[in-house]
Amino acid sequence: MVTGRKYLVTGAGGFIGSHLVEALVRRGADVTAMVRYGSSSSWGHLETVSDDVKGQFRVISGNVDDGDFVMHAMQGIEVVCHLAALIAIPYSYVAPRSYVRTNVEGTLNVLEAARRLSVSRVVHTSTSETYGTALRVPIGEEHPLQGQSPYSASKIGADKIAESYYRSFDTGVVTLRPFNTYGPRQSARAFIPTIISQALTRDEIELGSLTPERDMTFVSDTVEGFIAASTTEGIEGETINLGTGETFTIGHFAERILRLMGVDKPIVQSAVRMRPDKSEVLKLVSDNSKAARLMGWSPVVSVDDGLLQTIEYVRRNIHLYRPNVYNV
Q: C-alpha distances in angstroms, 7 versus 21, 24, 75, 308?
């Protein structure tokens, strides 16, 4: 049950985190939303949540790499959904140490506070990037982990810290490994909002490699996976994929989006947007059977329905996007 339980959501101002806060509030949870501290005092995407949710949750500002702050923030909390992370792969090439501090040390701080405060459940967020290019498909949770970028290496480190706390201290950790999530509020660091915003403002669509294959899950489905992981009994210590089980190339998504938008513009490749050859993850497609078996979770939003919702969001909020800037 979610109703009445005290939740802390780290990374609550982000894309997935803000949607999760909304969903938890609507189900009656007592939600504390942790956003990254900054001089602007921004709440990120929490500033644009639905009217029925505004004022129904508590916001605290701080950084997960500060263990003292994390310990203070988790006082009285029953469930932690830990989403705070640095996620931009290109930036990890130039600032890898910051990824270790936030993703590895930040996760350690959350887990240590959970251990000391006897928090009943920590839902730790992993990523399909930890698998690297598929060695076999579909990718099950036992697939080898491959650090093909400093970002994915930092998330592998965080996952192993989470595993160690369950094995060493019986901390109630569940690790979710979402495949690529998309939807309203996602930034142009991701390729789907990039395609949409460029289609609305430019004469051509400029992307990196068009051949990598991605398993895309709509954000509301991902959120349902987090809620299931926070409430399902007997899954402590498990790592669970969240994905659709289908994969399409980035080029396919670009053509599909343009068709849904009724736009005919050329798609060009740019070396600036390319990953280093050995770092590019060529194919991701999930085996989501474990999520169905253990949590009763499966995605319900079709690709086109999700894309249409995302297109409408970007169209209404195009002022938030800078399609000519190479976001990292």
A: 9, 8, 11, 31
In sequence order, what are the residues at sequence separation of 6 or more whose Cβ sits closer than 8 angstroms to the Cβ of residue 13?
Answer: 33, 35, 36, 42, 43, 44, 45, 46
**Whole-prediction pTM value?**
0.96
Which residues are CB-neighbours of 83 under 8 A, at least 6 positions away? 9, 10, 11, 12, 14, 16, 17, 20, 125
Right CATH for 6-182+218-244+284-300 from 3.40.1280.10, 3.30.390.30, 3.40.50.720, 3.10.450.50: 3.40.50.720
Burial of 118 (0-12, 13-18, 19+ CB in 10 A): exposed
Amino acid 78 reads: E
pLDDT for position 80: 98
- pLDDT per position as a tens digit, 117-175: 999 999 999 999 999 999 999 999 999 999 999 999 999 999 999 999 999 999 999 99
What's the pLDDT score for residue 324? 57
What torsion, rounded to 10 degrees, do the Cα atoms 271, 276, 277, 280 define?
-100
User: Residue 40: pLDDT band by 50, 70, 90 thresholds?
Assistant: confident
* Residue 28 structure tokens: 């009656």
> Is residue 21 left, alpha or beta, with left meaning phi > 0 and alpha meaning psi from -120 to 50?
alpha
Q: pLDDT grade, residue 273 (50/70/90)?
A: low
Picking from 306, 89, 45, the residue whose alpha carbon sits closest to that of residue 189 is: 89
- Could you tell me how far CA 107 lies from the centroid of its own chain? 15
Place of tokens 């936030």: 102
Cα–Cα distance measured from residue 78 to residue 97, given in angstroms and rounded to the nearest whole number: 31
Residue owning tokens 């349902």:
224
The ranges assigned to domains in the chain are: 6-182+218-244+284-300
